[in-house]
Amino acid sequence: MSSDTTTAQEALTFSDLGLSPKVLSAVTDAGYTQPTPIQAGAIPHALLGKDVLGIAQTGTGKTASFVLPMLTRLEKGRARARMPRTLILEPTRELAAQVEENFIKYGKNHKLNIALLIGGVSFDEQDKKLERGADVLIATPGRLLDHRERGKLLLNGVEILVIDEADRMLDMGFIPDIERICEMIPFTRQTLFFSATMPPEITKLTEKFLHAPVRVEVSKAASAATNIIQRLVKSGSKPWDKRETLRNLIKAEDAELKNAIIFCNRKVEVSELFRSLLKYDFDAGALHGDMDQRARMQMLANFRDGKLRYLVASDVAARGLDIPDVSHVFNYDVPIHAEDYVHRIGRTGRAGRSGKSFTIATMSDTKYIDAIERLIGTEIEWHDGDLSTVVASEGEDDAPRRGKGAPRRAGRKDDDRKDRGERKDGGERKKGGERRARHSEEDAPAVAAQQHEQSNAAETPVADVVERRARKDAIRSENTERKSSDRNERAPERGDTRPQRGDNNRPGRQRHQEDNDATVGFGDDMPAFMRIVAKV
Ligand code: AMP
């Protein structure tokens, strides 16, 4: 790769960058005066039609660094039916929707057709938008290929291709899809390529598909922000130990805690922890890849708007989301991939604010902690003594104690008994967790099916929780849309299941169809992960 490296210089104003008056006016209206380093470094080259390799994380202003020059360049020419002029590939639905929001915000003075092709929503609307002719096509790779296979999309009119969050695409098993897509687009295109880190597979991809790119690197990807206080918190390794550790931490931080994202490694843990927090009356929501799109967006909006104080999330669902002003990040699990730690804690301490992150650590996590410390180049302090002082619990109740803040409900005795059942199974599942290396949520179908069976035995407390939740939130989701398609994001979370595309008999789909039969509290609007546990 012949590459010309520039140091990202901060230009004084946006008007120094060569953007069109329409774009400048929208940027001014957005209240931005100074371009960020990635914007200052990338925009002038992107406007000249050069390929750009941007090494930058979310939170650096990288979205505008491709949206603004694209808008300027799109002012000439118009779209033709089924032949989009530009294509932006994003790894998750949320990121794709965020990019669409950016095009709407900065493109308010343009009359551009924008189409968003993501899973979890019906094909029909998307087909109509393609038919009308899209100036801007934003897509996740699986859904894009689905449209192409249906013959509804031609990629030979694409003038600008953006590949965003490339390292995340790699984690999610999307690289073969990306290669296929790149080969479908004319070689004369301009390519803008962004990645927070540059593992060898990504470097190879850039060598294959970028032409003499300008490399713009704005900060070391694997550095943790210095305005975040980071602590490790010792815990016993059983799920109920960890849940108790988390609850105690949250209570201790109460005065400073505005809102928190709580990260788990797998979606089954997201579901379990979410239910447990609700049981203890924490104002929590959950975000993972098995939820249908509308429920995910609604959950996120509730958290952003302050309607929810806690958001339990998986990496896949939360990566790259722009949620400003999160005061705390709790790692309920130590991330298996050290880079995920940097991304997780980067959800707090944004835009120069201070933030706090607590990582719950058990005896079996030491090698992952070592890897994180090597990556960030510093030792993380222990909050209250290291693991040598952990006292293993003998299985205390994971149900709210009577008298202190949690009134005893009818059926409490049953609940306690069932909690013990859940604990036992949770402990057994944990053992297998070590084997899962690549995709943090890859084995979810098997585990979720197991959880499904267990949950049927524990119907009373869960139904109770779900009903309470339903009264608190009117979360809307669309069963019909979920049934119709959501394969492109859920598949990678289970591992690379691309060959199964179109397979209506795969376990996840069967499970959802069965689960539609009986729901509690939400009727047809219940999020998918609750559906798993709320049969009556
Ligand atoms: P991104 O890295 O694209 O996710 O952007 C992170 C945040 O920075 C978003 O909330 C943007 O709206 C904001 N932002 C983008 N560009 C600027 C800028 N030049 N000045 C201040 N904030 C910005």
TrEMBL record:
Pfam families: DEAD, Helicase_C. A motif (Q motif) lies at residues 12-40. Keywords: ATP-binding, Helicase, Hydrolase, Nucleotide-binding. InterPro entries: DEAD/DEAH_box_helicase_dom, DEAD/DEAH_RhlB, DEAD_box_RNA_helicase, Helicase_ATP-bd, Helicase_C-like, P-loop_NTPase, RNA-helicase_DEAD-box_CS, RNA_helicase_DEAD_Q_motif. Residues 12-40 form the DEAD-box RNA helicase Q domain. Residues 412-442, 465-515 have a biased composition (Basic and acidic residues). Residues 245-395 form the Helicase C-terminal domain. Residues 402-411 have a biased composition (Basic residues). Belongs to the DEAD box helicase family. This is DEAD/DEAH box helicase. It comes from Mesorhizobium opportunistum.
